[in-house]
Design goal:
The protein is an all-alpha fold and 256 residues long. The protein has 10 helices and no strands. It starts with 8 loop residues before the first helix and ends in a 5-residue tail after the last helix.
Amino acid sequence: MTEMVVVDKEETEEQTTELEALTALDDEALIFKRDAEVGRVLDAFKNDAYAILDLQYKPPGSKINSEVKARYHSIARLIHPDHLRPSIEKKKRVDDAMARLNEARDVLNGKEDEDIAERAHLDKCIKWALEQLLGRKLTDKTTEPEMRQSYEEGSKMMGAWRRNTVGVLYEEAKALQQRMKGQKREEQRERRRTEEDAENRKRQREHDNAWEDSREGRIKEWTKFRDGKTGGSGGRGAKDGGAAVSQKKKKIRVLG
């Protein structure tokens, strides 16, 4: 004999309502968590790839590709636009956060020459910031165990270390900007000198061409001037020339 199960309609509806309410709360919590993570990425100093990925600082040359990959996917799953489906108002912030996240991953993975150079510069600035924090130098003579110990010591003061790093990176960026401005000014001066030299050479060529073009005319003028001075056929020049000869002959005439 089949047992009949009686389902209370009101109880079922109540359970459904509770489930929907819990789902809505979970969705709100997830949205809040995603918004907070987007804000954290955007608030991190843009030149500090470790801070963007929320990773501990590592000694220069450390192999951290697996950590970077794991952390990147963890954040990307949370804030990627395809998962987040942000409103139009939030879309730009989400896109900016993902762009920074991608750039930070590329820098720390160091596959391209530009990223390798940027990672090396970042690690150097982080080390300088740690030296400020600890009050001692970490030189090439510092052994690997001593370096690891120093970084572990610094990780206990991560907030202060990150602030020091931001300061160092900011000063380095400002110095680089000044160097680039100086280089740009020098390039502009060099360009002006090149343009002036080209203009001077152009004027000299035009002068030489004009001089050469007028050569035949100058020769004709000189010929006219010469012929007029030497007399030609019975002109003034001939008379003057004859008088000069007579005077010369008178000078050498022998008296007897």
